[in-house]
Each structure stands twice: as C-alpha cells, then as structure tokens.
C-alpha cells in the first residue's frame, strides 16, 4: 500500500529549495556554456530556476503572502541570499525556506569543492566523475501529491525511503529511487535520475526517435520539478519518458543531478537487499 505523507494530514510545513553558492561558477559558465540561464554572472547555481520553483510551490499551495515576497525582482532575491554567505571565497550549500506568511530564511552549510564543470550538463563537458554513486530502488511505493511535485519540509516519505536503503548520512554517495503505485520511477530522494534508453522515444525535435537517449521521468509520474532537471531538459541533454521499475538493469549506469552537486554518475544496484552493507 502506498504511504500517505504527513503533510496530507495537515502537518505544518514550509516550501524549500537547496542550491549551491560557488565563486568559480561565473567563469565556468563564461568559458563553457553559451545557453546557461540568466543571470550568467551569478555565483548561485541556477538562481532563477530556484526562485521559479519556489514561486510555483507557493502558487500551488495558495500562499499569497509568500507569492508576493517571492515575486520580487531577481536582483533583490540574490541580495537576500548574499546576506547569508559567511565567506564569499568558498562554496556553500544553501537551503532557502519560505513559510506561508512570506517569511524567508536561509540555512547555510559548508559543501565540498569539486570540478565546477560538473555543474554543467554532461553533454557540455567530457569529464567523467571519478566516483560512482550507488543507486538503489525503494521497496515501497509513494503516493504522488503536491508534496512530491514541490519540495517542502514535509519529507518523511523520502527520509523513510533512505533509511530502508541503509543511507544514514547525506555525505554518502548513495541514492534511493522512489516509485509510484504504478511501478514507475518518480525521482531520487535528493536527485533527478536519467537513464539511457533506446526508442521509440519522443525526441527534443518532437519526432519519434529510435536512437539511444537519456530519459528522465515525466512529472506525470509524480516526481519533483527540480531545477537541474529543468536545466537538463533545456540543454536537450535528456527527454522525458516513463521509466518502469521493472526496466532497470542491475549494474547499468545512470546520471543523477540536483541543485547543489550538479551532475553525478551512478550505477544501479538491484542485487542488494535494503539495509545490507556493501
């Protein structure tokens, strides 16, 4: 039976978005990415997409005060984030939190430095990340709702899925894919996944293609409208397509992405029982 989020039962929650501050980002964009979304000179990764994501969540939940605050101009939103950065020479992980009254706050934590090219889609750079993430599949389905489409602090289902996979620390290079009651991959607990598949697939041109392509689950499967997902689609790195859980192959490689770590290469692990140590 699919679980029901505590938020559906009336739990108090806020809307959130996590993003990366990286002082090296503007130069990387200048040298490598002509089509990166504006503002191109910002050290905040996919800044406009994060604000758009928060706006979409506020609109979905009918939070008029939050919507009014979030619809400030992007320069003002960036200045709001600037006030939280302790040292502008280092990378940071930011967690933007907005409540129903339109009050915003930012939690800031250190984050590991890495090759900033990993913030660009894999089609824009040739480097291969040195470490593969382990990618597991959850044993219990999650019921899609506004709390899976939009990112909020009501994340009990995702926390439970990670614990079932034996992932106990955010520092682990491991991910769990969550599944809807139809047996379709929705997303990862903290990432968007991409799988290599052969057609017939509706390609970026709108025409059916039988060529191999990177596929990410459509929002109709119930997953999150993530910022790096939007970026990957805009770059035509991937197309949308339903990914049945039964189609996954033990040992196949996949890409993962999020708004803090960019793009990471993973390997699907089906041969291990949840909670079993490697």
What would your notes on this structure say?
By secondary structure, the chain is an alpha+beta fold. The chain has two domains: 9-112, D-amino Acid Aminotransferase, Chain A, domain 1 (2-Layer Sandwich), CATH 3.30.470; 122-268, Alpha-Beta Barrel (D-amino Acid Aminotransferase, Chain A, domain 2), CATH 3.20.10. 22% of the residues lie in helices and 24% in strands. It contains seven helices and 13 strands. It has helices at 25-32, 47-61, 64-70, 74-82, 146-149, 156-164, 227-234, and strands spanning 15-21, 92-98, 104-110, 133-137, 174-179, 185-188, 192-197, 201-202, 208-209, 213-216, 238-240, 253-258, 262-268. The protein has an eight-stranded mixed beta sheet. α7 links the parallel β10 and β11. α2 packs antiparallel against α3 (64-70). The longest helix has 15 residues, at 47-61. The two termini are 29 Å apart. Mean pLDDT is 90; it is low at 1-9.
Any key phrases for this structure?
278 residues; alpha+beta; D-amino Acid Aminotransferase, Chain A, domain 1; D-amino Acid Aminotransferase, Chain A, domain 2; 2 domains; 7 helices; 13 strands; 24% strand; catalytic activity; BCAT-like_N; Aminotrans_IV
Number of beta strands: 13
Provide the domain count.
Answer: 2
The number of distinct helices, counting runs of at least 4 residues, comes to: 7
Mean pLDDT: 90
Q: Outline the low-pLDDT stretches.
A: 1-9
Reported by name, the CATH topology of the largest domain is D-amino Acid Aminotransferase, Chain A, domain 2
**Helix content percent band:** 10-25%
Strand content: 15-25%
* Sheet with most strands: strand arrangement: 6-5-4-13-12-7-10-11
Structural class based on helices, strands and sheet pairing: alpha+beta
User: What pattern of helices and strands is seen along the backbone?
Assistant: EHHHHEEEHHEEEEEEHEEE
Major sheet details: 8 strands, mixed
């Amino acid at each position: 039976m699919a679980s029901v989020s505590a938020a559906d039962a009336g739990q108090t929650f806020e809307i959130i978005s996590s993003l990366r501050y990286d002082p090296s980002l503007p130069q990387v964009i200048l040298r490598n990415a002509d089509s990166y979304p504006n503002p191109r000179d910002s050290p905040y990764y996919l800044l406009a997409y994060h604000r758009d994501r928060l706006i979409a969540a506020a609109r979905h939940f009918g939070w008029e005060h939050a919507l009014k605050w979030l619809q400030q101009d992007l320069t003002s939103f960036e200045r709001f984030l600037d006030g939280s950065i302790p040292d502008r020479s280092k990378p940071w992980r930011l967690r933007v939190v907005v409540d129903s009254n339109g009050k915003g706050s930012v939690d800031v934590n250190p984050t590991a430095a890495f090759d900033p090219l990993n913030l660009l889609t894999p089609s824009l750079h040739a480097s291969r990340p040195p470490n593969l993430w382990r990618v597991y599949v959850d044993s219990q389905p999650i019921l899609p709702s506004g709390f899976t489409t939009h990112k909020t602090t009501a994340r009990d289902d995702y926390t439970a899925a990670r614990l079932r996979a034996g992932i106990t620390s955010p520092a682990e290079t491991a991910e769990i894919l969550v599944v809807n009651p139809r047996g379709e991959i929705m997303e990862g607990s903290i990432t968007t996944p991409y799988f290599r598949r052969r057609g017939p697939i509706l390609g970026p041109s709108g025409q059916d293609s039988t060529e191999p392509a990177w596929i990410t689950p459509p929002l109709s499967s119930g997953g999150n409208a993530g910022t790096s997902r939007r970026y990957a689609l805009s770059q035509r790195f991937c197309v949308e397509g339903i990914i049945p859980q039964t189609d996954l192959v033990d040992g196949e490689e996949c890409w993962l992405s999020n708004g803090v770590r960019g793009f990471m290469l993973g390997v699907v692990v089906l041969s291990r029982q949840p909670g079993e140590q490697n």
